[in-house]
Amino acid sequence: MVDTNQKEFRKRDLLYVVPLWLLSLILPDPHLDHLRKESRFRRRDLFYLGGLLLLPLMWPDTHLHHLMVLAGINAILALGLSLFLGYAGQISLGHAAFFGIGVYTTAILTTRYGFPTFVAFWASALVSAALAYLIGKPILKLKGYFLALATLGFGEIFLVIVRESHSLTGGVIGIFGIPWFSLAGFSFDTYLKQYYLTWGVLIGLLLFSKNLIRSKIGRAFLAVATSEDAASTVGIKVAQIKLGAFVIGAAFAGFAGSLFACVMSTANPETFGLNLSVLIIMMVILGGMGNLYGPIAGAIFLTWLVDILGKYQEYSLPIYGLILILLLISFPDGIGTRLNIRLIYLISYFGRKKRREKAEL
Amino acid sequence: MKGKKGMVLWISFLILISISWATPAYLAEKSPYKIGVNLELTGPWAEVTKTVKMAMVMEVEKINAMGGVDGHPLELVIEDNGFDLGRAAANMTKFSRNKEIVAVVGPFEDNLQATTRAIAEREGITDIIICPSNPMVRSLNQRWSFNIAQSDIIVSQKLVDLCLARGYKKILVFPGNWPLALSLAEYFKRFGEEKGMKVIISKETHKPTDIDMTPQLIKLKPIIESEKVDALYASTGGPPGPIICKNMRTLGIKIPIIGTHAFGFNFIIALGGEAMEGVEFAAGKPVVPYQLDKDDPVRPIVIDFDKRMRARYGVGADQIAGHAHDTIWLIYDALKRCQGKVTRANFRDALENTKGLKSCHGIYNYSPTDHDGLTKRDLVFIRIEGGKFMRIKFPGFE
After folding, report:
1. Interchain proximity B93–A66, CB inside 8 Å
2. Residue A1 pLDDT more than 70?
3. A358 in a domain, yes or no?
4. Per-residue pLDDT at A228 exceeds 80
């Protein structure tokens, strides 16, 4: 019971800052923007990617890995919703239901029918997307508050169905013993492996979203968000575009749900209530709408915040609320858009100071 | 002048001694045994877990005042999980990562337990569960998990005894829609029908967060009248219990009400008021400390605990405070019996070998096949009369 390794741990921490610092040197310098504008985006992405890959190796701590797995799952959810909420400008208060559909699809397919998790993973996204299509077709004709209420109602109806259909979902008791995610005999049985799995999926979906928003459909999202009437006058099929965003968001939630089921090994209706829907919206708003990195930053931030606040016991909820209010007041556009590159830039301040002086001479 | 200087010297000398010698010697000699506590301190179960926390803090302070476990003080590391699966699981890994933490207590609700039990198995850390969990969860491999509370099986058996003693033949069950409440209802039906009673489980259920049950009860009223039901069994826990009683009396349903052991909380009477009169249930001994038999082995423990609770917090011992008390003393007992250096594995083995430990709720016996501890004998019948818990006895059923 002596904490010898805890002291060692602290020393090691300092060493690990060095690669992070070196990594930050490849970041573009905002002061030198006018010199090389072309490579700006690619370098920033490379920094994030390197940081993500190195992070769990730098801090070999199961709790950190576990939290980052949860943060990654939340980030997938937030990314999906940001396409619908941030880009297409529609509100959904029932996003947790698609997450739930993903969880239950994986749970039922793997425990009842013995499907491999990889098949269940894709099936979850497909089932979520199919249901989103069926539900979205009628309710996406609504706008504003009415759409919010309709999606809220959908979330509640989903919960009631899950609780009451005992034979399929196990009712309130839920389903236990969902196997680890495995692929071709390789089982993701530690949090470290799950970290790479979750963030790998997230990076894949991020690349997909990045390409999507630069495509014709992505531009149409933005047009619909600004004005549906104006968008329809230039020949955009508003209903189809909204439905597309909804279905893609639901498919992302299905992926997230499948990963969640494999990580937690249980499926339980209490997990997909209104709380989760609001939490995802909070991640998107806090991270920054109309920005793909924002929701991910918001998801990581909120997951960590909630975990750290745990030690304040009964006061955790009021403190949480206070922090959210203060953040929304001081960062109305979201932490992702305002801080953006600044924080990481600060780490490498002295390293690039010389470079900048050289460039300016 | 000289005297003053001398005094300064003396004082600094004394301070030096007290700093460099006495305090560190006392602090550094024995490192504390830490216990992680993973509770729903916010959310629908906040009122219940508050009592758990109060009682645990009080008992740990008592043990430390007694000199701790062979000189090692106990220390609680309390974390809130906000009734959220992800947070409860993350807390569990947080505790398992901290090498100083010997065991984890909680979480409270069933929905969170399956995952934390699985993590406990994987990481090799003892997980002590305060609330009884449903049979599905208990049937999982549970080498590292221990239950403190009376299981749903023995509570249901005891309630069937209560119905037999009262001569009830037809019972309507109004269950909550969470796993424990439903499994209590199902076990009650199974055991009741074995004894020749008719048990109807209502299709109407309620949530722990419901603040009005009138809609459900209006639907149940015709069933109660047409079937001539003898009593209504509110298979629930926490705040819904008194709400059901209140709404029933407002609707003019006069049949007796039977409750679960989760009616043995102090706040139940405060919430329900007069509507709680005549409610009968089976609960643990801490609910009625002064009405236990004179020769009951746990009577002095319960009375002492109740007195300390009243002196410190102004509320007496109750069902859940008793569980918290027992958790701490079980841990204390197991730590004392640990052979050599205390490790997680040693602690688990010691806890599994607990035999005949007398604590608030009764006598605890664990074995490799039984991680439940208590038996039917550790429950008593209770009736609410005049705003107080009164013990009732039935010849032949005690």
Report:
1. yes
2. no
3. yes
4. yes
Taking an 8 Å cut-off on Cβ atoms, the answer to whether A265 and B114 are in contact is yes
The verdict on a CB contact (< 8 Å) between A176 and B94 is no
Say which CATH number the domain at A129 has. Answer: 1.10.3470
Compute the nearest-CA separation of B94 from chain A (Å): 5
Answer yes or no: is pLDDT of B323 > 80: yes
Other Cβ atoms within 10 Å of A161 Cβ, number: 14
pLDDT at site A172:
80
CB contact under 8 A, A314 and B50: yes
The pTM is what?
0.83
Asked if residue B234 lies in contact with residue B257, where contact means CB atoms within 8 angstroms, the answer is yes
Distances (CA, A) of A214 to A211, A223, A238: 5, 13, 18
Which candidate from A172, A266, A314 shows the least CB-CB separation from B177?
Answer: A172
Query: Which chain B residues have a beta carbon less than 8 Å from that of A163?
Result: 177
pLDDT of B58 reads 93
Query: Which has the minimum average pLDDT: A155-164, A195-204, A286-295?
Result: A286-295
Residue A63 with chain B: CB contacts under 8 Å? 90, 93-94, 97
Q: Does A275 touch chain B (CB under 8 A)?
A: yes
Determine the average pLDDT of the residues in B230-244.
88
Average pLDDT score over residue span A83-108: 91
Our CA-based measurement puts residue B179 at a distance from the nearest CA of chain A, in whole angstroms, of 5
Record: contact A316-B85, CB cut-off 8 A: no
Confidence tier at A154 by pLDDT (50, 70, 90):
very high
Note whether B31 contacts A268, CB cutoff 8 Å. no
Of B42, B136, B177, the CB nearest to A314: B42
A271 has a chain B CB within 8 A of its CB: yes
ipTM of predicted assembly, 2 dp: 0.79
Same domain, A304 and A356: no
Whether residues A9 and A135 fall in one domain: no
Chain B residues with CB under 8 Å of A268 CB are 85, 111, 114
pLDDT of residue A8: 47
Return the percentage of chain B with pLDDT > 90, whole number. 25
List pLDDT tens digits, range B92-106: 988 988 888 999 998
Within an 8 Å CB–CB cutoff, is residue A54 touching chain B? Answer: no
Residue in B with minimal Cα distance to A273: B84
Q: What pLDDT, in 10s, does the model give residues A284-305? A: 988 888 778 888 988 998 999 9
**Which pLDDT score is estimated for A71?**
94
Domain hosting A7: range is 1-58+341-361
For chain B, domains (ranges, CATH) are 33-151+298-377 (3.40.50.2300), 153-293+379-392 (3.40.50.2300)
Q: Does one domain contain both A223 and A333? A: yes
Count of CB contacts below 8 A, A vs B?
A: 110
Query: Comparing A192-201, B141-150, B166-175, which segment has the lowest mean pLDDT?
Result: B141-150
Per-residue exposure over A189-221, b if at least 16 CB sit within 10 Å of its own CB, e if not: eebbbbbbbbbebbbebbeebeebbeeebbebb
Cβ neighbourhood burial of A342 (10 Å; 0-12, 13-18, 19+): exposed
Instruction: Name the closest residue on chain A to residue B119, using Cα atoms.
Output: A264
Residues of B in contact with A70 (CB under 8 A): 86, 89-90
Q: What is the pLDDT of residue A29?
A: 56
